[in-house]
């Protein structure tokens, strides 16, 4: 009881919604499982692991995969979530400052991702449709659920400890750091190049996935802005997934580049 009382200092009361409660549990469980799968070598087929199923086929697995170009696949991942955020202003208008900030943060986050796909990133592979569909659904459902969970807090008393403004700061740090390191990645290749290189600059000197680190920071920004159980559940689940994905990414770089600096960690400088 003491633990629950402490949590309620930071959170709105859990909503009387079976859907939101179930999604809070599902988000942590499914994303944590996806992270552990990455560590075990069972990757979602995008980015550096776009051809993982081709390798499986070479080892005797005859399963055929429908493929999208990486650019098309990434647009599929982020566009529905962006539209969900934008539509939320029409579905839930004028529900107070906190709700407006959350809706804005969700919309800006996924608009940035669509903008990067169109104008920043350089692609060299493809994406398996069976990987694109669950990621697309995850982003879309999480965005819609986060906004809906906030809607359910309307007319409830604010949590005793207000984390809205620290959340705004975390969100801005996260989205800025993520964009900066995506920009650095885009500069690794000149036009026409497709091979991977060891990233340099920024926090790439310390970790191989600083863009993931800042994405995690951004999602904790969402959770502090919202102060809902679902917001924190999705942030925790995302942390598990990106820890696993970054571990797998570092392992991939170590296998591909003999000169990869061993002191460069996966996602947390000097630690992991």
Automatic annotation (TrEMBL):
GO cellular component annotations of the record: membrane
Alphabetic keyword roster: Membrane, Transmembrane, Transmembrane helix
A Gene Ontology molecular function term of the record: oxidoreductase activity, acting on the CH-CH group of donors
Pfam families (UniProt xref): Steroid_dh
Transmembrane segments: 17-36, 72-92, 163-181, 228-248
InterPro entries: 3-oxo-5_a-steroid_4-DH_C, SRD5A/TECR
Keyword Transmembrane helix part of the UniProt annotation: yes
Membrane topology: Multi-pass membrane protein
Protein name as annotated: 3-oxo-5-alpha-steroid 4-dehydrogenase C-terminal domain-containing protein
Taxonomic placement: Eukaryota, Viridiplantae, Streptophyta, Embryophyta, Tracheophyta
Compartments it resides in: Membrane
